[in-house]
Amino acid sequence: MSEVNRSAPPPVGGWTRFVTARPRLALLAALVITALAVFAGSGVADRMGSGGWQAPDAESTYATDVLAREFPASQPNLLLLVDSGSATVDDPAVAAEAARLVERLEAEPGISGIGSYWVTGSPALRSEDGHEAIIAARIGGDEKTAGETLDRIAPAFAGERGPVKVSLGGPVAVQHEMQTIIQEDLLRAELIALPVTLVLLVMVFGSAVAAMLPLGVGIVAILGTNAVLRGLTEFTDVSVFAMNLTTALGLGLAIDYALFIVRRFREELAGGADPRTAVGTTLRTAGRTVLFSALTVAVSLSAMLVFPQYFLRSFAYAGIAVVLLAAAAALILLPAALVLLGHRVNALDLRRLLRRSRRTAAAEAPVPEAGRGWARFAGLVMRRAPVFAIVTTVGLVLLGLPFLGVKFGTADDRQLPAGAESRVVQEHIREGFPGSPGGGLEMLIEGEGTPAAYAALKGRIEKVPGVLRVDGPVTADSAAYVGVLPDGEAVGEEAQQLVRDLRAMPADSFDTSVTGTAAVLVDSKDAIADRLPWALAIIVVVTLLLVFLLTGSVLIPIQAVVLNALSLTAMFGAVVWVFQDGNLSGILAFTSTGDIETTLPVLMFCVAFGLSMDYGVFLLSRIKEEYDRTGDHERSVTFGLSRTGGLITAAAVILAVVMVAIGTSRVTNTKMLGLGIALAVLMDAMVVRSLLVPAVMKLTGRATWWAPRPLRAFHQRFGLSEGEPALAASGTKGAPGDPAEPAAGGEIPEATRAGEKVSTGA
């Protein structure tokens, strides 16, 4: 077999030539751009929203907007809970103070639709024990404007007011408090994740200098993404929840990419290359894999753009931006820093200070003992491939079974921690007031009508199964509405069916639209169900194409999609078992609502699938290149796992640390997102990549690399690869005794471990 030319320097072109020729200029430009990003991204969280679960083109959204405009009292988003203490709410002093509160509230700009128990006498606005009552109002404007209004009036209304105590609640207060808590929790998560990540990187690299490089890449990616999101808020709504994904992916992917590139660079230095040549080889090999991996992650996240809810679209904006910026920083800034550092990248070896008797610097052993251990492990798995494949698959499926019992719902105040003021108000209303406050439906009635026509329509509504009471109608010039109270849970299956029945009910000459909590849930589920096949198609088709371009195989892309999906089963099972069913709610400090917010599984799937592909690309690129070099299928799998097993595991542990830090949030959805993805990442790296991939590739054998002739020709022309193959993947196996032939037990040959200049990726 032919040999790789180990003496000729690798070709250096494009960005490689720029960063190696002018590294100081590249770093200076990056410093200036980062400083501008800090300025441009300042205050981004204050411009974000905390909603976005509603589909903007849904019937419920239309009805809500019309009712808020024409009948603001029907859509209150601010509730003042008035506690009269030992007196009753009908006490003259309490009533007088309530009247003063209403009068002051009416004088506040931007507030309309004010009503109260003391004005209407409605029993729904008075607690059953008679010691609390409600003043309801609507704050106009978008989420940002409503939040600013709330901040302005809160000091004047909340707290002790004569004989009463006033607390602020309602949807606008819940969303505003959630936004504030998320910002505080994100800062705490960063303070937790950064030092822990630095310690783990020092343990991985040994060198404190090398460990600082991935953190630098991550910080640049996060700051740049904040600037991008700040710009987007000028044109569209962006969810504050996306900030959590920015931090998690910014640190996680930057560390992944930097680990891959720095390790490859240090191997090249250990093999005798000068820093510029080492950077050129690193970018030609590991750099291409990083770029390819970034594209696969970005594609998975871009699938969320097909959904109408801005909550999901926001994660696509943040995810795509942070992935591409992390890749750009890893491929431009990091190589420039490596050229300037040279062999000093191995400086400050803290592990050597702790263990002077051992030579632990990674540069001294391009393939350390851990790599030989992974090679032996891969050999063990492949010798028992059927057992590992069956047991692992069955175990993953069993872990995912709880998801079969998933129930979808809407996010409410119980997302907040137990002591949050707006949640306390909502709990008092939910538990202490009659009926189902906030859980009713409203039917908007448009068109000219007479009292008799309205009465006839109301009569038909009352006969619909599941209706407990119908209030109204309240009329205006050319519109009216009625309130419909469901019999049972506000967002249960019966209430959702009632929404469908009301919408299907004949309304004569009227145009009717139904809104309310259950209607929003129905529309959200329908919107996701309608767009989900398109999102899945985008992810699957593009993943199949990209993995084919990387490997030239028809079977490997299919394996990648199926195995990635299997890696997510534990996450989805845990989401239902823990967060829906309430197991571990005491330990994790959250309140189970008995359902999962509708958009969360979609978000978690797209993010976790993309991260799984990230690790999959790292492993497959090494396997593919070794197969191109030797034509030995089993040896290539062993080699790939030996070279990337420790790297992928370390990257997964570090990313899991970041996600767990995000999971310490006091907001339940953020906690679910962080802990769920941390579990998915660990399962993918430690189970799927370590056990299932080598077992399945052993079972499929050399057929793994098959492709029909037209597709082979397509791959030869357009496919992506690393380095110059020494042997075409034609199926010719290396001769016995060839340096590429694996040693006994699946270990990597000493000649290869010693740092031969072969194109092996990172």
What is the overall shape? Answer: elongated
Question: Considering DSSP H and I runs of 4 or more, what fraction of the residues is helical?
Answer: 55-70%
Lateral strand order in the biggest sheet: 2-3-1-5-4
Assess the beta-strand content as a share of residues.
5-15%
**Rg to the nearest angstrom?**
30 Å
Number of strands: 11
In terms of structural class, how would the helical and strand content be classed?
alpha+beta
Amino-to-carboxy terminus distance:
24 Å
Mean pLDDT: 82
Largest sheet: 5 strands, antiparallel
Count of discrete alpha- or pi-helical segments spanning 4 or more residues: 26
Poorly predicted tracts of residues: 1-13, 356-368, 722-762
Write the layout of secondary structure elements.
Blueprint: H1 15-21, H2 23-40, H3 59-70, E1 78-83, H4 92-106, E2 111-116, H5 117-120, E3 132-139, H6 143-157, E4 159-161, E5 164-169, H7 171-205, H8 208-232, H9 242-270, H10 275-302, H11 310-341, H12 350-354, H13 369-383, H14 385-400, E6 408-409, H15 421-432, E7 441-446, H16 451-462, E8 467-475, E9 479-486, H17 493-504, E10 511-516, H18 517-551, H19 555-567, H20 569-580, H21 585-588, E11 596-597, H22 600-630, H23 633-662, H24 668-700, H25 709-718, H26 750-753
Parallel strand pairs: 6-11
Antiparallel strand pairs: 1-3, 1-5, 2-3, 4-5, 7-9, 7-10, 8-9
Quick recap of the structure?
Residues 1-13, 356-368 and 722-762 have low confidence and may be disordered. Strand 8 (467-475) and strand 9 (479-486) form a beta hairpin. Helices cover 61% and strands 8% of the residues.
